[in-house]
Amino acid sequence: MTAPPSVFDRLTALADATRSRLVALLERHELTVSELCAILQLPQSTVSRHLKVLMDDGWVTSRAEATSRLYRIESRLDDGAAKLWLLVREELERTAVAAQDARRLESVLAQRRTRSRAFFSSAAGSWDAMRAELFGRSADQAFLGLLDDRWLVGDLGCGTGWLTAAVAPFVRRVIAVDSSPEMLEAATKRLELVTNVDVRAGELEKLPLEDQTLDLAVVALVLPYIAVPATALTEAYRALKPDGRILIIDMMPHQREEYRQQMGHLWLGFSREELDSWTRAAGFRRPRYRPLPVDPEAKGPALFVASAIRKS
Ligand SMILES: C[S@@+](CC[C@H](N)C(=O)[O-])C[C@H]1O[C@@H](n2cnc3c(N)ncnc32)[C@H](O)[C@@H]1O
Question: Is the pLDDT of residue 189 over 50?
Fold first, then answer.
């Protein structure tokens, strides 16, 4: 009979962050390699290599089901391993990456439920696929119909004007602001035929907008570039009318350090606490922060949408 691995062997297996994340996921649910790849956003070869180490060291077991192989945490961990795992899990749960993994796990499980429903009850199950085939994601944008057509909207950090183009048909006017000449040029081209849009050069920290003019200020995927995001929120407050709203779309806290070099990000996502304190400090009331559902096809971190209202 072979002796169980010593605590030191156990430590070696868990000392790798990816392997700890795998164990955490497989403790919550039985998953296939491709589901694990989708959650961790790692290639299959990397995930399989880490799974093999975990299997060899007795952390994970697997079983075959139809044409798939499902992995889960070993249900009979010895006392030492169970204690060690509790410690590692406690640390891991404090990290941003664990929260991102949990959100992606939810979305993978939701997709699996839809697939199995589609398989077992053809009429109801096939509707989602048919809807996607017929209309793509265009019906998702129907909520734009809730925008007030008397509103003046600021798209602050508009980039190539994607959001301005989506919002303009539903409101009175959109002022699209950005500091990059190249982005402004692309936005101007995209919005060439849209008559109710102004494209303006400017900084979020010093907006080219009069006091109390906007009904809605949208700040989408811009705050990671701003050294002191609270300054931009204070400026947006100044430009909003009383009772005007701010809408912020951005990344939840994550650990993609490479975004600093690749994209010049100064912030790796934002927590509810940060957004709440900055919006309140700027003078806003009723701050809200909601994680957005994760698109299983998307490679980036999970997003949130936050909003707040300017005082009357
Ligand atoms: C990732 S893009 C997002 C564009 C757009 N909001 C979207 O959702 O597609 C970020 C944009 O913010 C702009 N930006 C970054 N810092 C800025 C600042 N301090 N003032 C104005 N624009 C800024 C960049 O030029 C870039 O166009």
Answer: yes
On whether residue 214 sits in a domain, the answer given is yes
- Which tokens hold the place of 133? 């085939």
Q: Is 249 helix (H, G, I), strand (E, B) or coil?
A: strand
Q: Is the pLDDT of residue 1 over 80?
A: no
Whether 118 and 233 share a structural domain: no
Note the Cα 37 to chain centre separation in Å: 17
Query: Is residue 155 located within the same domain as residue 249?
Result: yes
Residue 266: domain span: 144-309
Q: Which residue is listed with tokens 């971190």?
A: 301
- Choosing from 164, 178, 209, 223 the residue with most ligand 1 atoms within 8 A of its CB, the one to mutate for a pocket test is 178
Could you identify the atom of ligand 1 that is nearest to the CA of residue 232? 19
The residues lining ligand 1, judged by C-beta closer than 6 Å to any ligand atom, are: 157-159, 162-163, 178-180, 183, 203-205, 220-222, 225-226
Q: Is residue 305 domain-resident?
A: yes
Given 112, 134, 156, the domain boundary residue is 134
Number of domains in the chain: 2
Residue 250 is assigned to a structural domain of this protein: yes
Predicted confidence (pLDDT) per residue in 105-159, tens digit? 998 888 877 766 655 556 666 777 778 888 888 888 899 999 999 999 999 999 9
Q: How far is the CA of 200 from the centre of ligand 1 (A)?
A: 13
Q: Does some domain include residue 296?
A: yes
DSSP reduced 3-state for 147: coil
Question: Which CATH number is 209's domain given?
Answer: 3.40.50.150
Helices (H), the chain: 7-14, 17-28, 33-40, 44-56, 79-93, 96-120, 122-135, 162-167, 181-190, 229-239, 258-263, 272-282
How far away, in angstroms, is 178 Cα from ligand 1 center? Answer: 6
